[in-house]
Amino acid sequence: xxxxxxxxxLFNYKEFSAKEVFLDIRxxxxxxxxxATRDEVLLEELIKLIFSSSIVKxxxxxxxxxxxxxxxxxxNSFKQIKEKYISLFAEDEEILLDPDSIEYIHYRIIxxxxxxxxxxxxxxxxxxxxxxxxxxxxxxxxxxxxxxxxLVELTQPRSTDxxxxxxxxxxxxxxxxxxxxxxxxxxxxxxIHNLIDNVYGVDKDEYLTTLAKIHVAALTGAVPNIKCADSxxxxxxxxxxxxxxxxxxxTNPPFGAKISAGSKETLMxxxxxxxxxxxxxxxxxxxxxxxxxxxxxxxxxxxxxxLKDGGKLGIVIPESLLSSKKYSYVVNYIxxxxxxxxVIGMPDNLFKTSGKGGTHTKTCLLxxxxxxxxxxxxxxxxxxxxxxxxxxxDSRGKAIPKDDLPSIVANYKNYKEIMTVxxxxxxxxxxxxxxIENQILSPRYYNPNILIQSDKLKNTHxxxxxxxxxxxxxxxxxTGDEVGKLAYGTxxxxxxxxxxxxxxxxxxxxxQSISEEIYNxxxxxxxxxxxxxxxxxxxxxxxxxxAIITNYDTEIIYQSHLYKIRxxxxxxxxxPYYLLALLSSEYVQDQIKAKxxxxxxxxxxxxxYKDLLLPLSKNEDKMKEIAAIVKKSVFExxxxxxxxxxxxxxxxxx
Length: 654
Prior knowledge:
By secondary structure, the chain is an alpha/beta fold. The chain has 21 helices and 26 strands. It has a 9-stranded mixed β-sheet, with helices on both faces. It has a 4-stranded antiparallel β-sheet with strand order 15-23-19-21. Strands 20-25-24 form a 3-stranded antiparallel β-sheet, with no helix packed on it. The longest helix is centred in the last third of the chain and has 31 residues.
């Protein structure tokens, strides 16, 4: 017969992750408590029990306490906690939970290692209770622990460094910093207290800064230097005791086009909040304030501004800041102010916490080192790039065993200078600063597989840029038109959309066909001819998909998300069918994928198609052979399609 204690703890919570335990507790409290179903209130009660459990655990023996006695033990222990942390808890604050709820939580948390910096279960509790409600609406999301740990590892802080997180939220980066020091044998309490004095946090959300203080205090026994203030204003009266400049800044600032970066008065103090124009290949600031500057832009400038010369910045930012044409001036600013140490592309589910929770925004981990005055004109230097495919959880936030970040960190530590092509992998490769193209720092733009393939192809193929072929009149590119949904189904003329391009064919949907009147208004402008190629330029997964226009397809209108490509007479023996094969080849498709970035929610190749390299075979007979195979393949399928269409018509004839 099991003891009463064993029966109460039948479910061994050591076998479950802290997140699963806290989710269980959250659901229990939400269903039980009357008048206190807000997650913030429930979390406050859980925090009191977590703090008190350190005392309760030492007072428990093998005897079984009733729910009332256990609750009293927790209440008395919390009085001691309040005396120790007078800045964290009000003098009249009490545990509000009933004895049954306290008992329920006790048997679920008592076997967890709640005060481990390495595992940080308190951070898990914060994410479960308030992760979606508090931060997503302000453009900020809890930084996954492995991402925070990675940036700390890459910046390699020293125990004497002054370290800042200027969007500290609930203290995730600060606990990662302290964990880094602990793993590096700074383990005694005196050293940890000294380290905490060197770590600073700022956030303008008072509730979150309180949670951050509690977070760090629970794990270390010391209250950290965390203030509630606006990092962009940097009001010294509110940040008394803070350093003027910092050795290291580690942060995940708010991001999003719809999030306000601050008032006009605040933004006027930032160079990057103004409009910039390109003059002779360089970017020049104007005197006009830009409209709707997103917070990640001005936070980047503030981070660089607050760094000491030679200081390091580790920051989580949207990939668009490093790849979008509209932010080229920001990358130009970064390159002029800092040495780029590392850029790691993250999978788009990094910030997904559940099926609906979090965001699919693709992000990068960026590490910079601020130039000293002597380094401003630094010569060409190597930078480390990587593209993670896995981040330890899936698109629903569920933990999975695949995580590329430890391998990337290991590769970074082993990398010294520029790597050879043979050493390249997506989990670590290098380029030199003079290889940065078009102010783009996204790692996947410099996909190492493309460099490896280029190296292999150069002996048998001529690698020719599409822009050069356009300049020589070999190729013409044109985009299509939109007709509006009201035009759908008004006539017999196919309106070709991205989803109609498949396996080199156009498979138009009759429901989207348009009237002859609309067709006649646009056909001259579109000028569709046999042997033209349509290629998808925008979309979720179809970018780069191509089809060729046959004699059956010339009476169409194609939409604006498609390129029409025409091959003119040329000295390269390039014909449309060979080009169709080239555009579909692994080498060109890898380039298209590398140059496709998110723009206003959808993926877009934009005008980066001009930089695609086409591998034209040096063997003319081989080119003709491939073109003939493609032509035969296309026409056999088209003829089969037309025969089937005709059969459907003939079957109804008398």
